[in-house]
Design goal:
8 strands; 2 domains; Rossmann fold
Length: 222
């Protein structure tokens, strides 16, 4: 991990949302448990979802059902995503932007740095917490806006295309090792923040180029 980044060539900063720019207060343990219960209803064995994140659990369940009972696959997928979306929106009702988020984005804009957000959250939840996001970011890609959600590189690549920059001209900022993996596999610089559920060692192990306390601190590296 470097303690200073060369930002002379940086034209854009892309942020994760929940845990980086805002707190949505999603109880992921409850969400995971709810999806597991739904999978039990559809007779999807636990062996299909070992060590997977929630959206990937759903995808694995769909693949399993498509092989055995294709008619059930679409029903399961719809019900699972409805469950996740409902919980995200409920959490967003109690969520809020971190202090300084708008100031951060305005300051980057004043320095001609383009900004975007890539998130596994649904669009409705993001807009509930940040209704004026379109006035502050040039690109917002939620899970509905991409065929492959992060950490698949295509999620970030789509945002970079929307911003009109190459990966080497961008920084990916996030609170989770998945965000660091996303940036590294896409070819951006990576910055980890400590405002989410991951600690410094988690982000260091993911090989973040830089770790800062909170997203607004990124202003100090330009």
């Amino acid at each position: 991990m470097n303690h200073k980044l060369d930002t002379s060539f940086i034209k854009a900063v892309v942020f994760d949302f929940d845990g980086t720019l805002a707190r949505l207060n999603i109880d992921f343990s409850v969400m995971r448990s709810s999806i597991r219960k739904l999978m039990t209803v559809f007779q999807i064995p636990d062996s299909e979802i070992t060590d997977l994140h929630i959206l990937e659990m759903i995808d694995a369940g769909v693949v399993y059902l498509n092989e055995l009972r294709p008619a059930d696959a679409a029903v399961f997928q719809s019900r699972a995503h409805e469950l996740v979306t409902r919980m995200e929106i409920g959490a967003a009702d109690e969520g809020a932007l971190f202090d300084g988020t708008r100031t951060l984005l305005a300051e980057l804009a004043s320095r001609s740095i383009r900004t975007g957000v890539v998130t596994r959250n649904c669009r409705i939840a993001v807009i509930k917490v940040f209704p004026d996001i379109a006035h502050h970011c040039q690109a917002l890609l939620t899970r509905e806006d991409t065929e492959h959600v992060k950490p698949h590189p295509e999620h970030l690549r789509s945002a970079l295309r929307a911003l009109g920059v190459f990966p080497a001209e961008a920084i990916m900022v996030g609170d989770h090792p998945l965000d660091i993996l996303l940036g590294r596999e896409t070819g951006t610089c990576t910055v980890g923040v400590l405002t989410g559920h991951s600690g410094r060692e988690d982000l260091r192990s993911a090989n973040a180029d830089l770790i800062i306390d909170k997203a607004i601190d990124i202003i100090n590296i330009f």
